[in-house]
Amino acid sequence: MKDRFLRACRREPVDVTPVWFMRQAGRYMAEYRKVREKHSLLEICKTPELSLEVTLQPLRLGVDAAILFADILLPLEPMGAPFEFAKGEGPVIHEPIRDAAGIERLRVIDPAHEGLGYVLDSVRLIRKELDGRLPLIGFAGGPFTLASYLVEGGRSSHFDKTKRLMYGEPAAWNELMAKLSEVVRRYLVQQIEAGAQAVQLFDSWVGSLSVDDYREFVMPHVARILSDLATRGVPVIHFGTDTGALLGAMREAGGTVLGVDWRTPLDEAWDKVGAGVAVQGNLDPTVLFAPWDFIARSAKRVLDRAAGRPGHVFNLGHGILPETPVDNVARLVDFVYQPTVRA
After folding, report:
1. pTM of the prediction?
2. Among the options 28, 32, 149, 214, which is catalytic?
3. At what angle are helices 117-130 and 48-56 packed, to 10 degrees?
4. Which residues have a Cβ under 8 Å from the Cβ of 18 and sit 6 or more positions away?
């Protein structure tokens, strides 16, 4: 069923639970590593033909959707915050944004015409190649996650610099979030207009916040993005990690589908957000390194907790890790599809 994923997002009946994986294209696949021998990550993102090639690679595993190959940080460069991927360190922002003056310099861009047209070209090219065989998911980083990279200058464990700005200069923080949210809103709308049939908002690091801080400093900005996307006629997945305490507030912020990480049992998460939303998740990515019988038991536990309710999209609780055995991923897809798996 080629629209199985979209039907589940809309909480409609499906023949079997649909499955796709965050970071389903990446370093765990030999064909991706071969492309990376010749091209940097940014070169792949900025070259539609390469983005197409890498987006299609994991479809041989039998997943129910393709997800655009890009990176959540791409909007930062045209906004005036260049970055690079340093070997062994991940993304590094050349000039972190830590005060009102730096925030003032950030530009609110039109993604299509000011630096991100190549992403939209990739969306069009992938949709044409898929030719209706599978739906295409577009995505963008959530405003808190983008802000944390900008302020910290890269990855962080405690987000102390981010929170210092947030708590100490709330007006500057809200200006930063307003700029990022508007760019993300435009970017996702343009991906939909280019052909994305669903989109995911990756607010990966928002789980570092308390519920009170989320509601005060993040939720109004996210809600503005999601309320607009709700009018665009495609499913919208709202995702973050370590967000067990935030799920209720995230549900209020919006989204057609709520992504759940592995720390919260799926049934408890669904009870918390209510029956009026689909859920995505939520196998721990490290389970895929385990012996097969443990993988199968863990996947069955997720499916049992979903209990066959309409609106479950099987996924990991975050992205596939680089050394994951490909055979385990393919076998997991087949396992989820077995009609007797919940017997």
Report:
1. 0.96
2. 149
3. 50
4. 4, 5, 7, 8, 64, 65, 313, 314
- Structural tokens at position 316: 């990991």
Given 10, 27, 232, 263, which residue is catalytic? 27
- Using the predicted structure, report yes or no on whether residue 259 has a pLDDT greater than 60: yes
Cα–Cα distance list, 52 to 35, 58, 221, 236 (Å): 12, 11, 31, 22
Return the SS3 of 290: coil
CB 205 within 8 A of CB 163: no
Amino acid type, 275: A
Q: What is the pLDDT of residues 97-145, one digit of tens each?
A: 999 999 999 999 999 999 999 999 999 999 999 999 999 999 999 999 9
Whether the Cβ atoms of residue 295 and residue 314 lie closer than 8 Å to each other: no
Q: How far apart (Å, rounded) are the C-alpha atoms in residues 163 and 49?
A: 39
Per-residue pLDDT, averaged over 246-265, amounts to: 97
123: helix, coil or strand? helix
Query: How many other CB atoms are found less than 10 A from the CB of residue 253?
Result: 24
Q: Are 184 and 225 in contact (CB under 8 A)?
A: yes
| Six token digits for residue 271 | 């009870």
Look up 27 and say whether it is catalytic. yes
Point out the catalytic residue in the list 10, 36, 301, 331.
Answer: 36
Catalytic residue chosen out of the listed positions 7, 23, 98, 185:
23
